[in-house]
Amino acid sequence: MARLADYFVLVGYDPGKRGSGDGQGQILQRFPEKDWEDNPFPQGIELFCQPSGWQLFTERNPPTFFVAVLTDINSERHYCACFTFWEAVESAQPQSHSRNGEEEEEEPSSPVQPAQLFAPKSLVLVSRLDHAEVFRNSLGLIYTIYVDGLSVSLENVIGNLLTCTIPITGGAQLDADDEAARTISLGAGDRQVIQTPINDSLPVSSCSVALLFRQLGITNVLYLFCAALTEHKILFLSSSYQRLTDACRALLALMFPLKYSFTYVPILPAQLLEVLSTPTPFIIGVHSIFQSETQELLDVVIADLDGGTVNVPECVHISLLPEPLLQQTREALSMVLDPELEVADLAFPPSTISASSLKMQDKEIRAVFLRLFAQLLQGYRWCLHIIRIHPEPVIRFHKAAFLGQRGLTEDDFLTKVLEGMAFAGFVTERGAPYRSIDLFDELVAYEVKRMHTEEGNKQKILRHIKELAEKLYKNENPYPAVTMHKVQKPTEGCHLRLHQKPFPRLDEGTVQWIIDQATAKLQTAPPAVKAEKKCMVPSGPPIAAIMERNGNALANSARRLEVVRNCISYVFENKMLEAKKLFPAVLRAMKGRAARHCLTQELNLHVQQNRAVLDHQQFDFIIRMMNCCLQDCTAMDEHGIAAALLPLVTAFCRKLSPGITQFAYSCVQEHVVWTNIQFWEAMFYCDVQNHIRALYLDNNEENHTDEESTEGPQEAKSALEIASEQLRLWPTMSREKQQELIQKEESTVFSQAIHYANRMSYLLLPLDTSKNRLLRSSGLGDVESVSNSFVTNSIAGSVAESYDTESGFEDAESSDVANYVVRFINRFVDKVCTESGVTNEHLKGLHVMIPDIVQMHIETLDAVHRESRRLPPIQKPKLLRPNLLVGEECVMEGLRVYLMPDGREEAAGGYIGGPPLLPAEGAIFLTTYRIIFKGTPTDPLVGEQVVIRSFPIASLTKEKKLTNVQGQVEHLIQECWQLRSCTFQLLRIAFDEEVASDSAEVFRKHLHKLRYPQHVRGTFAFTVGQSPKQAMQPKAKEKNPSLRTLSKNLVKNAKKTIGRQYVTRKKYTPPMWEQRSSQHFPEDNEDEISVSEEMDRSTLTPTTTIKPSDKMTINHLVERACCRDYQRMGLGTLSSSLTRSKNEPFRISTVNRMYAICRSYPGLLIVPQSIQDNTIQRISRCYRQNRFPVVCWRNSRTKAVLLRSGGLHGKGVVGLFKSQNAPTAGPSQTDSTSLEQEKYLQAVINSMPHYADASGRNTLSGFTSAHMSSSGKWGSIRASGRMSSYALNVEIGSRLAGKDLLGAQHNGTPSEASFLRPHRASLYIIGDKSQLKGVKPDPLQHWEVVPIEVFDVRQVKASFKKLMKACVPGCLSTGDTSVTYLRSLEESEWLSQIHKILQISVLVVELLDTGSSVLVSLEDGWDITTQVVSLVQLLSDPYYRTLEGFRLLVEKEWLSFGHRFSHRGAQTLAGQSSGFAPIFLQFLDCVHQIHLQFPMEFEFSQYYLKFLSYHYISNRFRTFLLDSDYERIELGLLYEEKGERKSQQVYKSIWDYIDRLNKKAPIFFNYMYAPEDGEVLRPYSNISNLKVWDYYTEETLSEGPSYDWELAQGQPEHVEEADRQDTSAPQTKRKIIWPCYDNRSRVEPDAISKLLEELHNLEMELGQVPERWKDTWDKVKASQRTEARPEGSRTPSSLLMSSSLSHHRRSLGVYLQESGVGSTLNLSLDSDTSSTSTPSSGKQGGRKSTSTLYSQFQMSESENRSYEGSLYKKGAFMKPWKPRWFVLDKTKHQLRYYDSRMDTECKGVIDLAEVESITPGAPTMGAPKTVDEKAFFDLKTTKRVYNFCAQDVQLAQQWIDRIQSCLSDA
Prior knowledge:
Blueprint: E1 2-3, E2 7-14, E3 24-31, H1 45-49, E4 64-71, E5 77-89, H2 101-106, E6 117-127, H3 132-148, H4 154-163, E7 165-166, H5 179-182, E8 183-184, E9 192-193, H6 208-216, H7 218-229, E10 233-238, H8 241-255, E11 263-265, E12 282-287, E13 300-304, E14 309-311, H9 323-337, H10 340-343, H11 358-376, E15 384-388, E16 394-397, H12 399-406, H13 412-419, H14 421-430, E17 434-435, H15 439-446, H16 448-454, H17 458-476, H18 508-524, E18 535-536, H19 543-547, H20 558-572, H21 576-589, H22 593-605, E19 612-614, H23 616-631, H24 641-649, E20 652-657, E21 660-663, H25 677-703, H26 719-729, H27 735-764, H28 817-835, H29 840-870, E22 890-899, E23 920-927, E24 930-937, E25 947-952, E26 956-962, E27 973-981, E28 985-992, H30 997-1011, H31 1020-1023, H32 1028-1032, H33 1041-1057, H34 1073-1077, E29 1080-1082, E30 1088-1090, H35 1111-1119, H36 1121-1129, H37 1134-1139, E31 1146-1149, E32 1165-1168, H38 1173-1179, E33 1190-1194, E34 1201-1205, H39 1210-1216, H40 1227-1230, H41 1233-1246, H42 1249-1253, H43 1265-1268, H44 1290-1297, H45 1312-1315, E35 1323-1328, ...
Parallel strand pairs: 10-12, 10-13, 11-12, 19-20, 34-37, 35-36, 35-37
Antiparallel strand pairs: 1-7, 2-3, 2-6, 4-5, 5-6, 8-9, 13-14, 15-16, 17-18, 20-21, 22-23, 22-28, 23-24, 24-25, 26-27, 27-28, 29-30, 31-32, 33-34, 38-39, 40-41, 40-46, 41-42, 42-43, 44-45, 45-46
Helix pairs in contact: 3-4, 4-18, 6-7, 6-8, 6-11, 9-11, 11-17, 20-21, 20-22, 22-24, 25-27, 27-28, 27-29, 28-29, 39-41, 46-47, 48-49, 48-52, 49-50, 49-52, 52-53
């Protein structure tokens, strides 16, 4: 039984000091006056009676009642029920307190004046029980007795109240006889039934929870609930005290089964408001009048009950429930509180739906929260560790495991709850395995499954909630109120009576006497025992069983676990290659929890007797798996992975040397988890629990050996079950037995503590203990980087940073490792041993042992560390040797490096897909010719492939050291370089740690020496075949005496010719180019001739006959390419120049045969017949580098010539453009050179045939209109894009093109007549704008200057650098790669330069084709001049588009005319500073652009151009070395005698090599080659028409660049053999071709190459001598032609190889379309509009076929139909009229007709080029009758007249107009 009330107190108003407004409360009387022993009187009651302060009021208020809660020092709660009423205060007479209340009643009272003020007075009951209603009734009764003056003694009532006892909760209340105990009466004729809860652990809430939800709403209450659980401060505001109490009580009820353990004050008095600024969490209620005081609280969640709001400050973050639960809870609450919501939308809502009564609703809400906690904490009992059973159970909760298994480690809310005080209390209270259980225990043990299955089913959930609510209600109201309460209430309005007497003073004696009697009676009664029903607490299903449902299917996919298992078994079976392949997959799988568990289980199987000795490679694999496994664990180790690995890291080991073993733990120390003390505690407790379990199991087995058979499954008992069994037996045991058990348990814990001290020292002491600093950031390396050569990577992680400084570890940094670890272990041991009750002696013993353990371990580690340093590093793949060319030799053996990705996506397995070929691991080799990387990809999935990347040393343009490339590769890297080559290769190499840095340096020096030799003789082309040591020496041996003498001879002659003043000899240093231009030339590398004076003219008299001594020279010169070409073009033969036949306009001059006039020109030059050699000598001075104008090509049709020269010197420019008759002062007038120059140009003009007829003025009268019909094509040169600085002066331009080129086009196209203005110049000089400033064109002269702006070499270099960066970026870009690529490509301006060169070339072609000669005179005449001149010849003359012709073109224009290959390619030391300028590459790119646009015009293939691009800088051949013929002769390169080649393999000339290859294989041949005679090509030059050359972007990693043919050929064979050997793999026919890896043309050849190859192989098999491919090809083509003729129409199959097949862009015409928009460029896509091609009658016949062929190429949909419709056409002679569907095609310039509109077969074509006129026609016989005769019209062509008829006149007119416009457009 328990006391209902402890104290009754009467509190009154104390006026306090006069003058202060507020008074204070004072206790007037209290009963009993002596404190109870078990329950002292609480302090400060008077504050709580009037929480807002004691004040006087001017009127009487009705009585109030509320319950305040006080918490005492033992955190017991006292409920103070306060009943307050108001009494009048009489200021006049002091009140007499002597009389008793009873007496006062009887005495007749005299009328009293009503007083002004009223003071509050409170009746207070203090109790430890929360029976608010009973208290309200009891105090109400006392008030009633007083106010209504009932005849009952107040002392008796109060005495009864204080002695009233009620049954204890949990007692046996359900007996019917007990009714008396439940009913109390205070002796005033009243009766009350007290409902004692059945189970005191469940809180009592009556209606408060439901009210709270009504006041605040669902979301707000959930916020408060989460805030309370996560320990935030919560403040309630209301103007009602009772509501504050209810709200606080409700919040606590919701938190069940957790108990709130912080400050809890439902009603806070005004005087104590500063409590609100306490730092600890609280739940407090405050009256709303103090709301303003609460404003400045920054971290308090304020709930306003009256306003229904919850205010969360900005700085407070409340973690809400984890997601599905939050939503489910909201839904469930909504179903309970607002059942109408579900049916609100129904058309016929059920009438009966209504919410339960308030009391019931209250219980339903609590049921929802009870379910919520059961779901939150499900399975918590499986994470309890019991570490002691006797004498007192000690229980710990394994938080990490719980969160991990629930998959909620990331969840903020649950983590905070588990760390909170409330949960700690929960574990202490509910952890015990043997106790009485309540509703929550049952729910969490038995109903979890049910809750899972019902998820989502609202009806079932609601049913469950109602069931629980019933139980809760039953607990609060255990029995129906059989007897009604019967309590007197005061009469209505009694408090307003005027003459109310004050509350009487009670008689202490009477009350005390009643109390004493009752106490005496109680002492004789037997003590009340709480009849507890103890039992074993059920554990419920384990978490795993619950979690499986929502487990992540992906992570557990069986396939992954299979991979992990296989990999581990491969490791232990020593199948390392297999393991290596699976390894990356295993590492990826380790992200999943299941895979990590699987790993620990599998490894466990391989441990025998706690030990598993591995070899080094196995050890490495296992370590890397463990590291990867631990990598993803947080410090909490929520999945117990680290825990599972802990026994394994001390089991796996390897022998380092006899007696020294290295264990796995020394290599997995690098993880945060080992430094987390909570982890060690959890591990320790787990182990202790297992041992204690074992301890009792063994005991049982000893005791129950006989019952063994019956108790079979006993083994499986959990530790908690055993503990509960033990606790049940404990009281029955003898004292000794108890002591013995305590002893055993204690020593178990102690031995585990020692064990853990050892384990911790293993994992905390680094292998290299000499390292002082332990602290390191906890960031761990990449997955791969965790194990390299596991020597250095195990320092004890970031230990100290996980502790706060108060632990006395501030000095951890400086202290040495041992002390540090000792202290760490000591802290751990202290904590766990005190918690688990280890005796003090034992604890001291431990403290003594720990330093010894650590010291011992350090000593063993030293030995291990020493030995592990000696270990060979991890096995790395063996280095593969590269194949070398004949004569190529290794300079340095391979250095082990990694080839890193270079920013191109393909090889790195980027968005394109495919396995990453890079990074690759291999070696870098330096040979005399190349730098070669050869290795294998580090990704094991492509580990069988070989990766090769190489480039010629000569092409190296830049090298730089890189930093921060770590991380892409698992091994340590020392330094990283980036080598860039102008063959568009990039080697980003990272040296492996085994490469000493000095050997890398040696490599660099060698590379430099080879890249920049002293002299050209040091290049590979010369040193090939010699030993590399000689190659380093500057002077080469004299190989060929006869050649040397020849070149000496030449040079001597040259010296004789020059009148030299003095010659100095000194050590050879290559001269600067500026000097060279002023006539320095080296004889050889020992001496240099400096000529200090101008040449002496007298020695340069022209000779008409050649001296005999020069004969040999001349013969050699005649063999040169230029000479052969001059003869081909009929520009004069040598003999004619000797006999001086006058009818030839040009002659070959030998004036430069000794290279005396111009060092960089060839020996034989073409000059006008009329110019004497000595004139030439003088003219040459006007030009830069003495490069005077010479003829290099003549148009065979128009006889216009193309000349080239260097730019003019300033002096020459002025002279040239002075008109002779203008009187000008100055020396230039007297200077005769300008006259001679003029004479020279006039001679060129005179050589042109039409000039003679035109009697002095060039009117171009010799031209027919057919030649000139290309007038409209000038649109092509209109400047495009940013290069529009095309500086054709307007006047010059207008004369040039017959109209204003750069102005707007007024009338579309000029008529032909306007193009034939008399101002056509005979010679155009294309010069540099900057040179020709201020030059006025002179109408009297026959030449005209076209000043244009060109880019200089500097711009080309800059542009090329940017182009290389764009194509091979070097590092991966962050953004969208394709966009970045296009942007950087644009910025490089490379395509703009190509556009510019093509544009100028097309301009020159046009001029030559219309009969004007052109002199290209730009810069020094050897860069852009060469590009333009070569392109012009290529475009104009089909010969140069053959293999032979192209070679001739390059030899003539580039080599003979002195393009400075060595200087521009920076081939020697001298050129190092100037850098690489790709002038020739730019030319080849232009050729490639033209080739793309006219693929049928070139005999050579694109591969040929790439081959040249690669080898002109590779220095493999001598062809492109040196800067001019002169230098080549001097070195004896030009005339190699025929028998000179020693070995067939080493080709000195690239041309010989190409010839040889071309005979063998058709790689340089273009199968589409089908030229048309005399075709002039006019390519589009707009940037939109240009393509980036794939030479820049593609690479072949399988074999390196494919341009060293012998190397590339050697490979495929052995690859296949290797494939065949591997029989284990299934053979497959599938080929996988990677864009950046395979050589596509070889792996997947085109059809023709394939057929030729098969033919070759068949011939070989038959034993015949195989025929050359070219012969076969020619035969096939010949037979094709003969087949094609008789058939008449060609079948598509014969099309492919037909030689006369016309390409869709034979020529490029551009005409301006007549449209409102302005001039849109249209392309003429067929040869018929190529009016500039030679109009030979033979060609006209074959024309038709071209266009028909064309139409077969294109689908009819894609045809360009400018206009179409139906017309009647009269057939040929005697044929009838027929309707046909006509299509007018502007683009092809033809009128086609078909049978019907749907027909795709074209029936005929009328070529508009042949149309002469359109005239109105007349109807002839058989014409359609109904048509108006004006609808007929005739079309007259050169061959016949076509008669047409349209449906009506308008249509006919439209047709006529359309055809007319087409004709005029042409």
